[in-house]
Amino acid sequence: MRTLTYPTSRRQFLELTALAAAGCFLPRRLFAAAESPVITMRRAAATAKITVQKFRGNVSVLEGSGGNIAVLTGHDGKLLVDAGITASRPALTKALADISSDPVRYLINTHWHFDHTDGNEWLHSIGAQITAHENTRKHLSQSTRVDGWNFTFPPSPEGALPTKIFQKEQKLHINGAALALQYYSPAHTDSDISVHFADADILHVGDTCWNGYYPFIDYSTGGSIDGAIRAAEANVARVTDKTIIIPGHGPVANKSQLVEFRDMLVAIREKVSALKKQGLSLAEVVAAKPTAEYDVKWGGFVINGSTFTALVYAGVG
Ligand SMILES: [Zn+2]
Question: How many A from CA of 112 to the centre of ligand 1?
Fold first, then answer.
């Protein structure tokens, strides 16, 4: 994932300033000149290496195909949290077989985005029952546009749709483990849930945390910077120093990294909001580089400082 050929910060900044000069200040236009990250990430997934880390409570984490995948093994069969990208099926199949011979029986989607649900159809075809928030099913059921990715997803095939849906929370008991699924309210999208493996105290927070990276915020399906901050606050409040946290992207995290992520979101929101309140345009705010002191640490993945500034600008008064 770190070898993506997504535009460099300089190239993207030049596109941004060119668009801004042309008077196109809407975030949807920021990506218009570049290849959609959906296409880039799907291509990268075909050759992506999958790493497997084993944690307590028979929970493993597979990293490398879209969002991080949690796997719980046992006599009831494997339960997966998130499905990765379809092109990684051969590598994921091998990684899953290396963990255990238990068949895949359950899949939970943390939210509707393709890098967490693309593999739904093949995982369902080998026996997985799919659970998700009702808005995940809604977005997958119909044609859905994401302006920030300059991409319109067609309706997903029937087999890819979650069949067990919920609104607020759902409890599961699988492989002797208690799982609590909880809706965040709109955050990164309007479909985000957390999955807590209660006995092992392992929390999958989906894309409400990108550990070490600026996150994408999907305004097209109900996300916002303020919702993202609320979710980040909720994550910090509910974990302890012992909790193992699985972010949507980036390495497995601890509480102090959740705090750092939350603090970064809050600080950049304040900076961008203050500049916007002075009447500065998006291009002027980007030129002021409100993320400068954060870019080395957080700007190394799909979202660079300029793009993140635009995502925050779109959601502040
Ligand atoms: Zn996402």
Answer: 7
